[in-house]
Amino acid sequence: MPTSVWPASGVLPWHLRATILLRSLAIQGSWNYETMLGNGVAFAMEPALRRLPGGRGGEAYRAAMARQCRYFNAHPYLATLAVGALLRAELNGDSPERIERFRSALCGPLGSCGDRLVWAAWLPLCALIGLVIWGLGGSPLAAVGSFVVIYNIGHVALRIWALNVGLRDGLRVAGALGAPWLRRGPDWLGRVGAVLAGAILPLATLRAVGPSHVGVAAAVLLVGALAGGLLVRVQGRWEGWRLALPLLLLLVLFSVTV
User: Fold this and answer.
1) Are 79 and 37 contacting, i.e. CB atoms less than 8 angstroms apart?
2) Is residue 5 part of a domain?
3) 140 and 239 assigned to the same domain
4) pTM for this one?
5) What is the torsion angle, in degrees rounded to the nearest 10, for the CA atoms of residue 182, residue 184, residue 190 and residue 193?
6) Which of 125, 143, 188, 227 could share a disulfide with 134, CB 3.0–4.6 Å?
7) How far is CA 107 from the centre of its chain?
């Protein structure tokens, strides 16, 4: 078994961690159907793998790079947790078999946690914040800019947290994936998003039609409220096409008669 080259302090130098983090921003740069994020994971880890016995190009280095370039699929933001954990395992000299089993086991949890937290909760919430800013009178540039800034603050913070946890815990990161904020975060963000969605409907409608068409805005809101109530009532009892078909027919009739 290779000798451990993990720093005695237990912490990689800050410049090396910064390099790994910056490289992780391009973790999807070589995405393909055969290895998914595998090449990106190896690319992010590569600067630290040079510490292995023999240095860059040594046998241990080549074996680790070949191992990490294999298939790996996870959410790209939480993949830095795998980068940190796998890197620590490689530098600790853990057996290739153990690293490979751990690597395979990470794909599912990191994918499902990331999808629920980011795509299903954080991204819609940031979009709603931008729409609220626009509905309150902000310019389109302010709405888009606020979305970009808030979203990227969250996603970069998630990457930093994941990398630090992976480097700290190594193969014992299962506890971090059970953190309350990670498990319940999507529900919390979803509740906030629901409140914002309710606020943006009247704000966006009034902003779109203008103050001179308050009656039209009120009619739109009334129809929206009735449609929302109808959807709640028929949820689970109607198939989607049964509801979509009459709405499509109404749209066609409206377009023909107007």
Assistant:
1) yes
2) no
3) no
4) 0.82
5) -70
6) 143
7) 14
